[in-house]
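Re: the multi-chain job from yesterday

Posting the exact lines I submitted so nobody has to dig through the queue logs.
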Amino acid sequence: MNLTACLSLSAILFSFGIFGLMTRRKIIAMLLAIELMLNAALINCVAFAYYAPAGADTDVGSILPIFIVAITSAEMAVALAVIVAMYRKRKVIDIERLEDLHD
Amino acid sequence: MIESSWMILLLPFISFIGGILFLHKQPKLAAGFSILCNGAAMVMALILAVGFLSSDDTGYHALAHTWSYDWFAITDTLTVSIGALLDPISIMMLVVITVISTLVHTYSIGYMENDASAGRFFPLLSFFVFSMLGLVIAPTLVQMFVFWELVGVSSYMLIGFWYHKPSAVAASKKAFIITRFADAFFLTGIILMATQFGSIGFDAINQGATAFSSMNTANPSFSLEGGAVQVFTALAAQEGSAGFLGLNLLSWATILIFIGGWGKSAMFPLHVWLPDAMEGPTPVSSIIHSATMVVAGIYLTARLFPVFAVAEYTLSVVEFTGAITALFAAIIACTQRDIKRILAFSTLSQLGYMMFSLGVADMEHTAGFTASMFHVFTHAFFKCLLFLSAGLIIHSVHSNDIALMGGLRKKLKGTYFVTLLAVCAIAGVPFLFSGFWSKEEIIMAAWSNGHQCSAIIGLLVGGLTAFYMGRYFFLIFHGEYRGDAHHLEHAHENKFMLFPMVLLAIPTIIAGYPMLTGHTFFNTVIPQATLPTHPDHSASWIMPVAIAMAIGGLLVAWLKYGRRAVSFDTPSTNIVYRCISNKFYIDECYIFVTKKIIFRCVAAPMKLCDDYIVDGIIHSSAAIMRGCAAVIRHWQNGQTHVYLGLMIIGLALLAWFGGAL
Amino acid sequence: MEATLTTDILFYLFSAAILGCGLMAVTVKNLLHSAIALMGCLFGTAGLFLLLDHEFVALMQILVYIGGVVIFIIYAVLLTTHLGTRYLPASTLKYISGVTLAAIVLGLVLHIDPQATHTAVNPDRTATTIDAIGYRLLDGSTNGFLIPFEVISVLLLSAMIGAATIAKHQKPGATNDEDETGGSAS
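And the result, C-alpha cells for all chains:
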C-alpha cells in the first residue's frame, strides 16, 4: 500500500465514473456515476493527507472532504428534485429524449 | 446685403429641416412656415437685386464672392471651396427662383388642401428650392455639381411624390436615370477641366478664357492673377493641339460639361423625362419648368460661357441642340391632348430657344447671351403662370385631357384672364407682353450674328408656339364643355391658388420692359469683355415677321379650334399626325434600345458574369461555411452525452497541458 | 495505522471491493441494483479511509453518503421508474465512446500520478482528531476555514429550500406557492 496505489485506485474509479456517465441513459444512473467520480476525488484527498510530508497541514485532508460531501449532497438534493419534478411533468427520465431542453 | 446673401440659401433649408422634422404632421403649419421662409428669402433676394442694380458699377467688377470657405484640397494648387458667387445672372436667378417659389408655395396651400401628405410636400418643395439656389450661387464647378445632384434627387422625390401611383414612380425614375446619365458626362467634364486648367472656380476659368479670347483683339491688356493665369496658360497650350477624335481636350471638356446641362435641360434626345415628369403634383411641374430644374442646364452653359466660346465647336453643338429641340418640341406640342404635356413640350421648345440663343453668341457678339438670360427671366414667370392655371383647371374638372374641357371661361373667370395674358406672352403677342421682347431679342441676335438658319427656325417655332398655345387656350376656354357636367358644376377657383396667379400676371407683362430701358440687369454678364453690342437693328424686317408669325399662329388656331366646336371622336388616321402625336416614337426607340439591345447584349452577359462568377465566389464560400457548420451543428443537438463527452475531452486536454507544465 | 502486511492485504481487499462494486454500479441493468452496488463501493471507501487513519471522513462517508445521498437516490429511483426495472440500453457508439474517454482519462491520470513525490508515510504523523477539525473549521484567522464553512452552510440551506420548491407537486395551471404535498426529495 502506497500513494501510487491509492491514486491508481482513485483513477480507475474515476474512469468507471466517466464510463458510467457516458453509457447510462437514465438521469439517476448518471448521477450515480457522478457519485463514483466524487468518491474517487475523496480518496485522492485522504491519500494525499496520509502520505503528506512532515510539516504539512494534514487537517485539510479531513476538512476538504467535508466540503466535498456537503456540496455533493446539496447537488444531489437539487438534482433529484429536478428529476422528480421532470418525471412528474413529462414521464421521461431518458436523457436522450430530453434533447429539447437545450432550446 | 451682399454679405448676408447666404441667408437666402439658408432660409429654404431651414424650412426643409424644420418642416420635415417637426411639422410633417401639421400641413398647415408646414405650409405657413415654408411660405414664411421662402418669402423672407424672396425679400432678401429682391433687396439684393435692387442694391445691385442701383450700385454704380454693375459690371463684372461688382461680382463678389460673398463668402468662401476651403472645403478640401485636391492638389497643392487645386482647392475645392464652397461659397457664393454673385454676379448679374446669379442675382437674376435668385430673384426668379425665390419669387416663384414663394408664389408656388402659396398656390400649393390650395392645391394640396385635400392631400394627406401635404406635410411632406412643403418641406420637399423647399428643399428643391434650396438645391437650386445653391446651384445658382455656386462659385465652383464642384459645388455646382453637388447642388446639381441635389436638384436631381429632390426632383426625384417630388415627381414621385404620389409614390403609390406606379406611373409617378416610373416617371421619377425616368427623370432621375436620364439626368444621372447626363450627369456622368458632366462629372467627367469637370474632372477633365480640373486636370486641364488646374482650376474649378468659375472666376478663374472665365477670366482666363476671356483673356485668351481677347488676345487677338484690340485690347489684350489684362491683369490676371491666381488660377486665371493657369487657365490662360492651359488654353494657350491647347490651341492648335490635335486632341482626340479631331477635338482638342478643351472642346471635349466643355462638351462633356454641356451634356450635363443637356440632360438637365431636357434637350433632344434626352428630353423624354420632362413630359413624364408631369406625374408629379402640378406645383412641382410649374417650379420645375420655370425656375428650378430645367433652366439649370441653360444656367450652366451661361455660367461657363466664356470658356465654351473659346472652345472649338462647343457653341455650335449648343446652338444645334437648342434649335433642334425648339423645333421638334413645338411640332409635338401641336398634337398633344394632355394639358400638362402641351405645356411640357412648350417648355422644351422655349428651352431650345434659350439654348440656341447661347449658341449663336460669341465673345464679340454677346447679344445672344443676353437674350438667352432675358428669355430665362421672362419665361419663368409666364410658364409658371401657365402651369399654375393648368393645375387649377385640372383641379376643377378632374381631367388632364383638353378633349374633355372647353367653355371654361364662364366658370373660371380669373383663370381665364391670367391664362390669356400668359398665352399672349408665350406666343409673342407684340409690345405688351414680356415673351415678345425676349423672343424677338433671340431671333434678332441669331440673325445679326450670322446664324440665319437658327433665326429662321426661331421664327418658325415662334409661329408654331402661337399656334399650339392658341389651340391650348381655345380648346380649354372656348367652345362648349365636352366633359362630365358634374365636375363643371363644382368647378371653382380656390383663392390661395388664384392669388399667386394674379401676382404672376404682373411680371408676365412687365418683365419685358427692362429691354426698353437698356436692360442693365442683363447686359453686363460676361467678364471684362468688350461692351455688349445691342442687337443689330439693321435686320429690322425681323420684328414685323415675328409679329406676323405670332398673330398668324393664333389666328390659325382660332380658325381651327376656337371658331367652331371641335370633335375628338375620330382619331386622325394621318400617318404624319400620328407619328407626331406619338412624339416621333422617341420613347419607343429608347425602350427598344434599352430593352432589346442594352438589356440583351450588355446586361444579360453581365448578369451571367454576376450570377456565376461574382455570386459563385460568394455562394461557394457560403457553402464551405455551411459544410463546416453542418459538421459542428451535430455536436449541438441537445444530447447531454455529447456535451459530456466534449466536456471530458476538454478537461482531459486541460489536464494534459497542465501536466505538461 | 502502520504499514504492515495486514494493511496491505486489507488495502487490496478494499480496493477490489471498491472497484468491483463501482463497476457493477455503472454496468448492471437494474437501477436499484446499481444503487446498492454504489452503496457497497462507498462502504469499501469508508474502510479504506479507516485504513488511512481518517476515521472522521470514514464516519461522514457512511453517515452522509450512504445514509443520506444513496438513500435519496434509491428514493428517487423508486419514485420515478417503478423499481428501475425498465432498462434503457445505450448504443454501441456510446459504449465505444465511454470506454475511449474513460481510457483516455485513466491514461492521463496514471501518466500524471507518478510525478507525485513524498510517497513515504511521515513517521511523525498523528491522526487528525475531531477536535482539531472543529477548531479549524471555526477558526476565523487566515489559517482557518470559517468563511468556507459558513458559505457551505448557506449553500446547503438554499439547496434544501430550492429542492423543496422544485419538487413540490404542481397542479396544472397552479402557481408555485400553492400546496405542500411535494418536497419528497428533501
